[in-house]
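Lecture 7 notes: from sequence to structure.

We start with a single chain of 146 residues. Read the sequence below before looking at the structure.
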Amino acid sequence: MLRRHAFRLPRHPASVGLARLRARDHLAAWGHTDEDGAFAATILVVSELTTNVIRHGSSLEPEFDLAITVLADGACLIEVSDESPGDPHLFADAGPHADGGRGIHLVDAVSEAWGVWRRGRYGKTVWALVHAQPRPPTTSGRPSRP
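Now the structure, written as tokens:
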């Protein structure tokens, strides 16, 4: 059974907190709690992808779309859609004093997979899949990829 919650938000910094709140409410409505493996990771991914669309999206777009789907096994699919043609990139590690560059690294670290779906001339959807159980860390401290 899929439990999807989709909504549109203004492209404004205050929308990051609102997106996290709506994601928490949606997960809680379906019985997920802070103890669930996917809960904190889903909130983190929502926050990072929302921040990216606000910081790097087109200034001509007043809004963007966010969808959170809780899958039957408890995994969460997060989708953030905008009309900007630019893709997020996994850059080399940002230095300790950099203002940005860590968001997609965080998404990559806590999600099972992530990517970009092209929507033709209507922009893109950046998505991430967070499993119900967190991935075990490797000896290097970074979660392992299957």
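The beta strands are 3-10, 63-70, 76-82, 113-118, 124-130. Keep this in mind for problem set 3.
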